[in-house]
Amino acid sequence: MEEQAKKKVMLSGIQPSGDLHLGNYLGAIKNWSARAEEFDCYYFMADLHTITVRQNPADLRRRTLEQLAQYIACGLDPKKNTLFIQSHVPEHTQLGWVLNCYTMFGELSRMTQFKDKSAKHKDNINGGLFTYPALMAADILLYQPDYVPVGEDQKQHVELTRNIVQRFNGIYGDVFKMPEPYIPKAGARVMGLTAPDSKMSKSIPEGCVFLMEKPEDIQRKFKRAVTDSDTERCVRYDLEHKPGVANLMSIYSAVTGRSYEEIEREFDGQGYGAFKPAVGDAVIETLRPIREEAERILKDKAYLEQVYRAGAEKASYVAGKTLRKVYKKVGFVAL
Ligand code: TYM
After folding, report:
1. What is the CATH number of domain 2-188+300-330?
2. 116 CB under 6 A from ligand 1?
3. pLDDT at residue 110 above 70?
4. Which of 10, 12, 14 for a ligand 1 pocket mutation test, highest count of atoms within 8 Å of Cβ?
5. Beta strand pairing status for 39-45 and 8-14?
6. Ligand 1 within 6 A of 67 CB?
7. Domain boundaries 205-295, CATH class
8. Binding site membership of 199 for ligand 1 (Cβ less than 6 Å)
9. Selection from 177, 185, 150 nearest residue 43 by Cα
10. Residue 5: pLDDT band by 50, 70, 90 thresholds?
11. Distance between CA atoms of 256 and 10, rounded to whole angstroms?
12. pLDDT tens per residue, range 262-315
């Protein structure tokens, strides 16, 4: 317990709004799973965030549990990491409201995710979609983390959280610890396989590799990956002129640990015909044990329930302490 108290804290979450994909894995989860010994870790299913866009209730429930099974299968041992479902810990919405009042309209208006999602869902630009980053700040600050491991696209929200910390602490003293975004070197922004100018996302399934997908489907997607019309078909890292190849190289680098120079040497003179299936194979071998383990865990519903119950209890304990401190600072009468 003593030692636990001294460890640095890491926290992150993923929305169970779709099946987990290679971008989520390389941008976020892969970076989480190696850290359990070093850090006190909290990872959650961000279900409250998903309803900013309409969800099918049965699918949301199923995907939330599948995501938990996949977290565990990716190496997040529930004995060493606190794994929980966001809506099980009411402090998130409670602190979320408070932080809404310390987040500016102008700041929220500048958020890229809000601009993207409101363009995509024109018929449902709701208040939750707009104030989402204040809830995300609450998710983070309740646990006073040192690091928030996320992909590049979430950096802006973590930066906004830092602004909120500065504003709140500026008024009330040292209430929140200043969190740092923790972004991986390779895999921070995995692009779609069919459109390497936009990030890999579930909304374009042909260009998106899902963690639970069958090997033959994964290989087919890699073989069809968009490259370029370079007549030499040379495997070289050039983000500006060869974004498709650069994306495949960054995926290959993230799963094999090889540098871009090593990859260029490995495929020297071989062209895309050899390179694309090699990336597919490397991804398949990385995902195979995860898929098999997740399928096994998912059958044991009692185990999953035990994990999320224990996770919610531990998370609530920590989150409750921060919330009480905040309520006291802003002047609410304690019950
Ligand atoms: P979400 O659910 O969109 O994505 C989850 C994580 O996956 C990363 N990611 C990617 N990384 C690389 N390449 C991609 N193509 C790619 N697509 C997604 C994201 O950067 C993220 O790390 N608001 C968050 C969820 C959240 C959260 C939090 C995260 C809610 N509260 C508190 C951290 C801390 C989101 O929508 O991520």
Report:
1. 3.40.50.620
2. no
3. yes
4. 14
5. parallel
6. no
7. mainly alpha
8. yes
9. 150
10. low
11. 25
12. 999 999 999 999 999 999 999 999 999 999 999 999 999 999 999 999 999 999
